[in-house]
Amino acid sequence: MKSTFTGLAILTALLLSWGLYQALVIAPTEQTMGDVQRIFYYHVPSAWTAFILFFINLIASIVYLANRSSKADALALAAAEVGVVFCTVVLVTGPIWARPVWGIWWTWDLRLTLTLVLWLIYVSYLMLRRFSSGGQTALIAAVLAVFGALDVPLVYFSIWFFRTQHPQPVMGNGGSIDPRMLHALLINWAAFSCFAALVLWSRFRLEVLRRNLEQTQALEELLQPRSSR
Amino acid sequence: MSLTWVTLAKDLRLEWRSKDSINSMLFFALLVVVIFSFSFDPTAEESRQIAGGLVWVAFLFAAVVALNQTWARELRNHVLDAYRVSPAPANALFLAKAFGNFIFVTVLELLMTPLFIIFYNLRALGPAYQLPLVTVLGTWALVVNGTFFAAISIRTRSREIMLPLLLFPVSIPAVLAMVEATRSILTGDFSARFWLVLLAAYDVVFTIASLFLFESVLHAE
User: Fold this and answer.
1) How confident is residue A227, by pLDDT bands cut at 50, 70 and 90?
2) How many domains in chain A?
């Protein structure tokens, strides 16, 4: 268990540095956008990773609703927290790229809006967990995760239609991508996935440990004779 | 079904005698109308463009007042605990609360609409007969999720603040649909059909989801 964790950590470090080298040195400079395009190697892998983490959160929430396992809830919490961090990276790197390329920081494009709404839903999920007390937190958080997931297709369709009503500048991804760019992207995605798995794992272990500690403390309080307190 | 009716009648009678939430909702919505009206001072053409957004934002904020009351009222004298131990089906209770909120918000909308028309010089250029449909579907979209999330938010600290934080992100597609449908009817520029279908889909999806999950939320310990 512990050696797997160390192995994953080393693999992540290697992949991240290789990905950085690929993105900054090997990948050719994009013709029209210039060097600012290199943010793409961090923006896109973060987005994919965030979506995978939100998906893990949904699965863990459904598992929790089905069998009330405390581990599933801990995993859901860890996935939501790490997912919000990656989603924030996406929302911050996006405008940094969009400003020089599109000339605007933000547009109500389909992907942008969907990512923002997902971020909002998961921030409210984390706030709910923070503000609720007692043993019901897990259940109401799992219910909210299911509601959020049901919302995603509706958001998708509404914005898809909204945008076809009002045409806006959208991403021009015509033409093919240089294979070296694709390599850099895929390596960075692998690196980010490993990094996310690593953080998720440690956050999950921390949460499980915290819960065990809480239980043990509660049990000790109960077992201690009243006089010795 | 009779339980739904009994609970609904009780809530309506309580509200009729106290008029707590309807009064605060009305005054709140009135303030929104007045403040927006003199801070923008729009022409008739501009009003048509923005009124859909203003109307629904005002109703959304005002509805939160009623929604917060839904379950908070049952906390006094431990009525909610009594519901929990009673063998009555949880969904009957949920439907009663949702219908009750639907009635409150509809009354609010009926009273506020004339004011909006006066302050913003509104006259629909599109098919006005679709407006009641938008209102019914939109109001149900707000109250079904609102009633459900109110049941969640009373389980938290600072419950009054928690409800909008949970409700607004999930309501984004519904609010967008209501605003756009209203705007399309007022300006007559495009058809509201897609937005009506989207609202109906939203209503169906979240009504079913709420009925599925409400029992576990009510009994969460």
Assistant:
1) low
2) 1
**A159-168, A175-184, B143-152: which is most confident:** B143-152
User: pTM of the entire structure?
Assistant: 0.84
Task: With cut-offs at 50, 70 and 90, classify the pLDDT of residue A228.
Answer: low
What does the DSSP assignment read for chain B? Answer: -HHHHHHHHHHHHHHHHH-HHHHHHHHHHHHHHHHHHHHH---HHHHHHHHHHHHHHHHHHHHHHHHHHHHHHHHGGGHHHHHHHS-S-HHHHHHHHHHHHHHHHHHHHHHHHHHHHHHHT---SS-GGGHHHHHHHHHHHHHHHHHHHHHHHTTBSSHHHHHHHHHHHHHHHHHHHHHHHHHHHHH-SS--HHHHHHHHHHHHHHHHHHHHHHHHHHT--
A1 vs A189, more confident: A189
pLDDT of residue A38: 83
Whether A145 is in a domain gets the answer yes
A49 domain residue, yes or no = yes
Asked whether residue A226 is assigned to any structural domain, the reply reads: no
B217 touches chain A (CB under 8 A): yes
pLDDT at B114 over 60: yes
Q: How far is CA A148 from CA A132, A144, A162, B38, B144, in A?
A: 18, 6, 20, 37, 15
ipTM of the predicted structure? 0.83
**Side chain identity, residue A52:** I
Please report the residues numbered 131 through 170 in chain B whose beta carbons come closer than 8 angstroms to any beta carbon of chain A: 145, 148, 152, 155-158, 162, 165-166, 168-170
Percent pLDDT > 90 in chain A is 28
**Distance (Å) from the C-alpha of residue A69 to the closest C-alpha of chain B?**
14
Domain ranges for chain B, please list them.
2-218
> Range of A207's domain?
11-19+39-166+180-217
Between helix A110-131 and helix A70-102 the angle, nearest 10°, is 140
Task: Pinpoint the alpha helices (H) of chain A.
Answer: 2-21, 40-67, 70-102, 110-131, 137-165, 179-223
Higher pLDDT, B80 or B142: B142
Contacts of B176 in chain A (CB under 8 A): 158-159, 162
